[in-house]
């Protein structure tokens, strides 16, 4: 098995058709079929089910595809590292962030990369925290800012900051912003919560309190814009940071009340996969991300406590 065979296999997997895959990698269809057959013989397992309408991956094919993507990406990074050395930051980097991360440092990150790293190609992905973690676990991103990721042996998670959570909604629904509210009172309010999926604790550090909130929620949402619209319309309230609703808070469309007894917090982590070596580019972007976060916190734009 070599890198060429893996590229051919990926083309067939993604195209689901030998003819289209052959056109993509610019080889004869017969040669492509021969390479796939050799791979199957090497693994002693069929990688595709041949059908009249195309090639359908088997379970073995699905597993090989995940590994092949990681292998080819690592090989490309290794080539760039050796050619460029540590003095030149070049190549590709993909970073995933929860919505708050993009809102706080997305623009400064893009500006800095464009200005200071002209040979670096940045791909920035925004999603809910759980989806961001899934992108990382699937190797679709190299680094990810995620809230309270689960303990995974394949994951290296570095705590970056801790945020205080507030009750956010219209003044008519949640009351005056200057008056704190006890946690016990939240269950009597119409709560709308974001559904974070794999990273279920993205909302709060305390899983017991989180379960109590989820049990009383009237609605779950997977959309930031949908959640914001529902809050402004007075359909319900939510638990969030001030950064999450900063535009609506500034325009007095929403208010944020401090939650007490106990206070609610969540922790942001900078994550990467353990089985992927830290490259020069990843090291530099890790340093830059932490620096930008610290600047936003010190400047008051991100109301949080830095960790580490």
UniProtKB/TrEMBL annotation:
Record SUPFAM superfamilies: Periplasmic binding protein-like II, Winged helix' DNA-binding domain
BP GO terms, sorted: regulation of DNA-templated transcription initiation
Alphabetical UniProt keywords: Activator, DNA-binding, Transcription, Transcription regulation
GO function term, MF aspect, one: DNA-binding transcription factor activity
Residues covered by the HTH lysR-type domain: 1-58
Highest taxon listed in the record's lineage: Bacteria
InterPro entries: LysR_HTH_N, LysR_subst-bd, WH-like_DNA-bd_sf, WH_DNA-bd_sf
TM region(s), chain numbering: none
UniProt function note: NodD regulates the expression of the nodABCFE genes which encode other nodulation proteins. NodD is also a negative regulator of its own expression. Binds flavonoids as inducers.
The family this protein is said to belong to: Belongs to the LysR transcriptional regulatory family.
Protein name as it appears in the record: Transcriptional regulator
Organism: Bradyrhizobium centrolobii
